[in-house]
Amino acid sequence: MSEDTSTRLNKFISESGFCSRREADRYIEESRVTINGKAAKMGATVKAGDKVAVDGEAIKSRKPTDKPIYIAFNKPAGVTTTTDTKDKNNIIDFIGFPKRIFPIGRLDNPTEGLILLTNNGDIINKILRAGNNHDKEYIVTVDKPVTPEFVTKMSSGVRILETVTKPCFVQQQGKNVFRIILTQGLNRQIRRMCEALDYKVIKLKRIRVMNIKLGNQPVGNWRYLTQEEADTLHQLVAESVNTEDASYFDFEEAPEKPKRTAGKPRTASAKPKSGGAKPKEPFVNPKSASLRKKGAAGKPARSTGKPSEGTGRSRGATGKPGTASGRSKGRSR
To answer: Can you give the residue ranges of the RNA-binding S4 domain (predicted)?
Structure first.
């Protein structure tokens, strides 16, 4: 009996660098994917020689020699975390990267801060699976003074969306400001937790994803991950679940469904500059903010390339701060 070499359709599309596996599922559900000219169904598989297309655009397997791309972007408020170019504020057009990339997770429109983008569908699934418990750290400004009671309730778990959030690390940073480290990712979780305790989020900023820190990177700018950051990221997800039945993070908002389009998705024809995704030093695209009247212009942010660790315990802290390992117990978003 010959060995089965077929690949799940959503995995095939994701690994090609076209989009995430989750978005591939939506394209399939909306009958926008074909195999050998016929509409594909959920659960379909792809065999060697099959021709796969999304909205008529051929999907090609990524070559083994193609280097994965990893980008850290400081998303301004107002930019939509979607690959749908019909949205005039979509993150893809804002960044303007010359190759196809897609975001790892989402930040809702009013939220700013760190979001990673890549063409590596496999690592996206490992980071986003809810059971993998990877840290995401935020700085939150609310509409009234943070109290010890508020910190205790937030860190212990808050009832939202017919469930109770997992215990997490919360630390007061200022009169109306606190820091929170989550591994959970319910829909608009931080905002809903605050609302449940009669607080309103005024500003929400993500400053860390696992070992990747935002640092002083200017708003509206992106940079490549350093080789050390990329290597550490791979180490952290090495034991992560990457199965079809594991659940995903929703991050800050439920993902929007791609809108049906009559034509082909827009693609970038330009080729990236030499150096690929592994420059010797972190690179910040000088055009990502200056060509758009959004975000804040500034000097490129420099990264030390060292794995990130959560800061130490200080006054008003409850729970254990996150570390780069992403394996601390009881932390969630």
So the answer is: 7-63
